[in-house]
């Protein structure tokens, strides 16, 4: 009887030693792991600040990254205790797949918003042409970007398509080129038309000297001889210069003996005998 009790005590002692060692290992993994996660999160936070990641996005991203790291550490610690994690991981994976499929569109827009806020292909106030719309960016959200059109309509564009599709950002460069196609009638003096456009350009102080402007004969069209005129301006002056030059051409070409042609057709009638 005493021998059986002694053997039983020895067994309990060995089990206690083994289980205690596992507990100590689990606690050590948790403490060291969480300390490492804290250090890594500090590095990531400083990286976000250095790269000027949007302040509204930082806490969310840091929370997700921290949660993922801590979950891995907890799973590792439970594995030291001998808890089988295969089934648990499979359940989490299946649940994640189901949620991901149900929210595929929303997750795509969220991922697009994260990419836009991190890489900054545009910012609030920029004028964009994207997804069939043109307007100025009013707000960049996690899921959508809100734009105002020139006639003050509000356009809400999902970030998924905006981040993966093509876009034109008219506000990125400080200078833009203004293009005109100016038609004169057949028989008009081309050299005079060119000299007149040179004069109009030199009179507008908003048109830059460098890069130099360009004037050339473009096409011999059905009803007109078309000149191509190109000039560089500061981006803020683009539309003002464009519209003012159109008005100047219309008002003054006649005074210079130049005709602004319109589509026309000559009809010849032959009397049949």
Largest sheet: number of strands, sense, barrel closure: 5 strands, antiparallel
β-strand amount: 15-25%
CATH architecture of the largest domain: Orthogonal Bundle
The backbone outline, from C-alpha atoms, is: elongated
Total strand segments: 8
Structural class of the secondary elements? alpha+beta
What is the radius of gyration computed over CA atoms, rounded to a whole number of angstroms?
Answer: 36 Å
Low-pLDDT runs of 5+ residues are none
What can you tell me about this protein's structure?
- The chain has three domains: 2-102, Helix Hairpins (Orthogonal Bundle), CATH 1.10.287.1260; 122-169, SH3 type barrels (Roll); 175-256, Alpha-Beta Plaits, CATH 3.30.70.
- Strand 2 and strand 3 (144-148) form a beta hairpin.
- It is built from seven helices and eight strands; from the N terminus they run H-H-H-H-E-E-E-E-H-E-E-H-E-E-H.
- By secondary structure, the chain is α+β, with helices and mostly antiparallel strands.
- The termini are far apart.
- Helix 1 (2-50) runs antiparallel to helix 2.
- The protein has helices at residues 2-50, 58-80, 86-102, 104-119, 159-164, 190-203, 238-252; strands at 127-130, 133-140, 144-148, 154-158, 167-169, 175-184, 214-220, 225-234.
- The relative contact order is 0.07.
- It is elongated, with a radius of gyration of 36 Å.
């Amino acid at each position: 009887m005493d021998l059986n009790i002694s053997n039983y005590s020895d067994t309990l002692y060995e089990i206690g030693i083994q289980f205690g060692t596992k507990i100590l290992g689990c606690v050590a993994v948790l403490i060291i792991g969480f300390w490492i996660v804290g250090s890594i999160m500090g590095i990531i936070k400083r990286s976000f600040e250095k790269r000027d990641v949007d302040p509204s996005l930082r806490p969310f991203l840091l929370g997700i990254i921290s949660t993922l790291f801590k979950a891995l550490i907890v799973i590792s610690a439970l594995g030291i205790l001998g808890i089988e994690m295969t089934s648990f991981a499979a359940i989490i994976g299946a649940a994640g797949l189901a949620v991901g499929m149900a929210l595929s569109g929303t997750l795509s827009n969220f991922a697009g918003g994260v990419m836009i806020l991190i890489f900054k292909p545009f910012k609030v106030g920029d004028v964009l042409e994207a997804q069939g719309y043109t307007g100025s960016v009013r707000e960049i959200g996690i899921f959508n970007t809100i734009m105002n059109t020139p006639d003050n309509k509000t356009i809400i564009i999902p970030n998924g398509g905006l981040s993966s599709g093509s876009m034109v950002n008219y506000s990125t460069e400080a200078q833009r080129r203004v293009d005109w196609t100016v038609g004169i009638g057949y028989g008009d003096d081309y050299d005079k038309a060119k000299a007149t456009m040179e004069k109009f350009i030199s009179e507008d102080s908003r048109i830059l000297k460098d890069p130099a402007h360009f004037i050339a004969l473009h096409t011999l069209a059905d009803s007109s001889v078309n000149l191509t005129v190109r000039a560089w301006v500061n981006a803020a002056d683009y539309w003002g210069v464009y519209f003012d030059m159109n008005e100047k051409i219309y008002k003054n070409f006649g005074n210079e003996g130049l005709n602004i042609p319109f589509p026309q057709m000559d009809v010849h009638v032959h009397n049949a005998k």
